[in-house]
From TrEMBL:
UniProt keyword terms in alphabetical order: Glutamine amidotransferase, Transferase
InterPro entries hit by this protein: Class_I_gatase-like (IPR029062), DJ-1/PfpI (IPR002818), INH-QAR (IPR052158)
Organism in which the protein naturally occurs: Nocardioides turkmenicus
GO molecular function: transferase activity
Entry keyword ATP-binding: no
All copies of domain DJ-1/PfpI, residue ranges: 8-176
Record protein name field: Glutamine amidotransferase
Presence of keyword Endoplasmic reticulum: no
CDD domains cross-referenced by the UniProt entry: GATase1_PfpI_3
Amino acid sequence: MTTEPRAVHLALPESMSDWETGHATAHINKPDWQARPGRYQVVTVGLTDEPVTTMGGLRVTPDITVDQVEPTDSAMLILPGSDTWHSADDTAPFVDLARNFLDTGTPVAAICGATYALAAAGLLDERAHTSNDPRYLAMSGYRGGDHYDTARTAVTDGDLITATATRPVDFAAEIFSKLGLYEPTVLESWLKLYRDNDPQGFYELMAVQ
């Protein structure tokens, strides 16, 4: 019996930082090395059905709009960075969606400016997290400074993943771990290749059946 893949929803704010989620989305959609190939499919989500222009100049048409997303039907919501996250009016529907995901126990993964928006909404006040810099998040006026982890570039606390903009590979690895995309030894090999630039990781991945 064929099972439909579960959606991993990728938010598309205007001017999204396309490189910050590229490793994650590419390998979620790529069946190679996965523990259960075809289990997930990336579905893009816009505030409207109009195309958005990424920071890299790509025009992307959303698959669905934010009002069509049901957290309990999703495996995860991924929030990439964007220049628009600092304006609550521009991104409020995405932040509200993230809150709904967390309230229903469905994972949320946020990187760069998206962490600022979650902080401003109070969603980082009681959760371990990281971002681009503690002083950056402090500008949001949030109360979670004591939970900021300066030692790690990507942090998972329960159903929330946060990461700094400069470590999209670490961000992707946390996402893969949360989704159970790869067996642990395969994820180690993936990190050897993509994080550590260790050619041995490539050969190990090529040997995965």
